[in-house]
């Protein structure tokens, strides 16, 4: 939704995290720490109070760590971002992300329906790892809520819901009981349900194509959802992320919660699968790499198909802001040993993630118990 290099984006409505152009953000960097990144949970008075305390303490800590020239840059940047930081939340807003840099006249403000953890970081580029994790947790998906006479297809994007399709039939009206035997009535009713569900099944295809999601949750009371499942063409059965038993008039919030749980389970199983694939490839000497150095080399050559990151991992290191020379497990030297450019301390995992974004690699965050048995925090499945 945002064209490359757009300097000012101030969203005045809720935005799914999948609409944020993380690739364009990953391209941005400066030789000096001039980019401010702020993540805040914003719903409720309590958060407002906590955010003020948190932001004040981060602002003074950052000021103390900067030389006079950079401090004045930072003050200008914070002044530019401040009103967006403390702005009242709009209806349904639970989280906010702000990226700002006064020197570059750059400000992005995103209002979300999901909650990030508090973070306030000044760095040489926008701090993207929390956004990356949110994108991993909140992929767009659909929910098909169905019973024997009603079907609603809702798209859920970072907990923002949008109804895409509503079909219903009136079984009782079509088949008045008058005059028929109970058996005949039941027979006709079954036929009517089947024809309604066939209509729903035909509609699933069009709606799915329109949504561009990886799949949908099949939900509803009773047997209709299972009957529908059998009527779906094979390729759409494959898109069903899970089947859940819920009331047809389940409140919106509960539907989102139940759907999110199914999505999370499906994502976890995808991460576990990628982790298994990595282990197998490493054992057989297949197309895989592990450890910071090997994975970094593969990423820099754009050979990585899927980057696997151990959840919540971080590795201290430094980067040259001129030639992007990246070194793990070392303190930043005064100048880069390759080009003499300025260096800064970084979380190497974040830098690897950004290279993955720039080179179009998929990223999976994997739990400790599923990851490699070694101490490595990253691994990669390679294209060649
Ligand atoms: Zn360098």
From TrEMBL:
InterPro entries for this protein: BaeRF_family10 (IPR041202), eFR1_2_sf (IPR042226), eRF1_3 (IPR005142), Peptide_chain-rel_eRF1/aRF1 (IPR004403), Ribosomal_eL30-like_sf (IPR029064)
eRF1 domain sequence ranges: 275-369
Protein known as: eRF1 domain-containing protein
Domain of life: Archaea
Gene Ontology MF terms: translation release factor activity
PANTHER family the UniProt entry points to: PEPTIDE CHAIN RELEASE FACTOR SUBUNIT 1
Pfam families registered for this protein in UniProt: baeRF_family10, eRF1_3
């Amino acid at each position: 939704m945002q064209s490359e290099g757009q300097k000012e984006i101030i969203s005045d409505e809720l935005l799914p995290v999948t609409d944020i152009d993380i690739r364009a953000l990953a391209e941005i960097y400066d030789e000096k720490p001039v980019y401010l990144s702020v993540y805040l949970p914003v719903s409720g008075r309590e958060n407002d109070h906590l955010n003020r305390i948190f932001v004040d303490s981060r602002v003074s800590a950052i000021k103390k760590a900067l030389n006079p020239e950079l401090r004045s840059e930072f003050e200008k940047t914070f002044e530019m971002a401040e009103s967006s930081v403390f702005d009242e939340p709009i209806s349904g807003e639970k989280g906010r992300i702000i990226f700002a840099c006064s020197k570059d006249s750059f400000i992005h403000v995103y209002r979300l329906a999901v909650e990030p953890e508090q973070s306030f970081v000044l760095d040489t580029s926008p701090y993207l790892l929390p956004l990356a994790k949110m994108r991993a947790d909140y992929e767009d998906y659909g929910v098909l809520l169905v019973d024997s006479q009603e079907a609603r297809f809702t798209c859920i994007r970072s907990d923002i819901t949008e109804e895409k399709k509503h079909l219903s039939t009136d079984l009782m009206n079509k088949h008045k009981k008058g005059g028929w035997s109970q058996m005949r009535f039941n027979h006709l009713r079954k036929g009517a349900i089947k024809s309604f569900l066939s209509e729903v099944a035909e509609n699933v295809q069009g709606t799915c194509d329109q949504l561009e999601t990886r799949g949908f949750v099949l939900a509803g009371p009773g047997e209709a959802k299972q009957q529908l499942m059998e009527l779906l063409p094979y390729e759409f059965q494959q898109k069903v992320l899970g089947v859940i038993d819920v009331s047809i008039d389940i409140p919106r919030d509960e539907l989102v919660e139940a759907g999110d749980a199914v999505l999370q389970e499906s994502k976890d199983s995808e991460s576990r699968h990628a982790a298994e694939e990595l282990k197998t490839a490493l054992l057989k000497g297949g197309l895989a790499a592990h450890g910071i150095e090997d994975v970094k080399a593969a990423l820099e050559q754009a050979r990585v198909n899927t980057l696997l990151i151990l959840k919540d991992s971080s590795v201290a290191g430094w980067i040259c802001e001129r030639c992007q020379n990246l070194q793990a497990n070392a303190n930043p030297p005064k100048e880069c040993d390759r080009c003499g450019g300025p260096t800064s301390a970084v979380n190497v995992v974040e830098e690897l993630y950004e290279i993955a974004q720039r080179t179009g690699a998929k990223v999976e965050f994997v739990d400790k118990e599923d990851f490699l048995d070694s101490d490595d925090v990253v691994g990669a499945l390679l294209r060649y």
